[in-house]
Design a protein that fits this description.
about 30% strand; 6 strands; YjbR; about 120 residues; Aspartate Aminotransferase, domain 1; alpha+beta
Length: about 120
């Protein structure tokens, strides 16, 4: 599982990202004002969770794996949440976070995309 610091460092490395802390200390990353990834800690579960926008295929397949489930409140928009049980390495997290970034970027208005 990525640490919060490693998650933030990677997200900050993606062009034109913005960051806010909201929803009880969740680290929220956006492109063009739209969220693409979140690092949060659910105290009632005592675990860290990384949530991100997934492609249609990934959203269908990923929740079948241990430690991955549709994201609370965001599943209707095809988001998943991953915890340490998934056993992902840094490279895997980076690939999915970058894909989430690209998915959200692609949905931004053309004028906004062109301004970056």
């Amino acid at each position: 599982m990525l640490s919060r610091e490693a998650f933030e460092a990677y997200c900050f490395s993606l062009p034109h990202t913005t960051h806010v802390v909201q929803w009880g200390n969740a680290s929220v990353f956006k492109i063009g004002g739209k969220i693409f990834a979140i690092y949060s800690r659910w105290d009632n579960m005592d675990r860290d969770i990384i949530s991100f926008k997934a492609s249609d295929e990934s959203f269908r397949i990923l929740p079948e794996q241990p430690g991955i489930e549709p994201a609370k409140y965001l599943a209707r928009a095809k988001w998943v949440q991953v915890n340490a049980e998934a056993g992902w390495d840094e490279e895997t997290f980076h690939a999915y976070i970058e894909n989430a970034y690209k998915l959200v970027f692609a949905k931004l208005p053309k004028k906004m995309r062109d301004s970056f």
